[in-house]
Amino acid sequence: MIGKLKGLVDSVGEEEAVIDVNGVGYLVHAGARTLARLEAGDEAVLHIETYVREDQFKLFGFLSEIERAWFVRLQSVQGVGAKHALALLDAVGTSEIESAAALGDASTFERAKGVGKKLAQRIAAELKDKAPPLGRSLSGGAAGLNAALGGSQTAAVASETATGAREAAVSALINLGYGESDARRACAAVLKTLGDDAGEGAIIKAALKELAR
Fold it and tell me: For residue 146, what pLDDT is reported?
């Protein structure tokens, strides 16, 4: 199985890109957000989810590991396929998906193309109270990722950093005696106001006030 590709962007289409790795061109399917950040001739690192079926072999690529992990998690919901998962990541993004899941907010999922009210409600119900996917570990964290990408894909780095701050805040609240579900809901609620660039300390402080209500 292929878990990651690092090479030159050969070409970019409407739904896929070709990544040249040492002379071998890999056809990688991706969402609009990912494809918009790829330019022919540039170096790219894509986290890969490999699908092997009787009649097909597909590679799905993502700029960050957390995006790949959510791509897999979303498809654990009945009725959500690869197209739905990509549409959700395009329209909502990982941070909002995590917040919507923690809050059981179906309306957020309805923003994705092809996701109707009933499916959005099912996604919200099935993801609520579940810990977000951790994905594969990334050596070096955000700094290591930034170095690997040559600083050219800052959106991916921001996604990893935001996830790290949220998870650190949740962990701190759990250590203070709060339940994980309550901690995640509180962090999700305050991040709607603070924004994804909020630091761990700010999230904890605001979440404690939220939990005290």
Answer: 43
Q: 137-160 pLDDT, tens per residue?
A: 644 344 333 433 444 455 555 556
Dump pLDDT digits (tens) for 103-126. Answer: 999 999 999 999 999 999 999 999
Give Cβ neighbours of residue 60 (< 8 Å, ≥ 6 apart): 28, 29, 30, 48, 49, 50, 51, 68, 71, 82, 86
Mean predicted lDDT score pLDDT of the chain: 86
pTM for this prediction? 0.74
Furthest-apart CA pair in the chain: how many Å? 59
206, part of any domain: yes
For residue 174, tell me if it sits in a domain.
yes
Last residue of a domain, which of 42, 62, 82? 62
Tokens of 210: 């939220």
Q: How many domains does the chain have?
A: 2
Sign of torsion over alpha carbons 114, 116, 122, 125: positive
Q: Which residue has the higher pLDDT, 60 or 197?
A: 60
How far is Cα 213 from Cα 208, in angstroms, rounded to an integer?
9
Radius of gyration of the chain (CA): 18
Residue 195 domain boundaries:
151-211
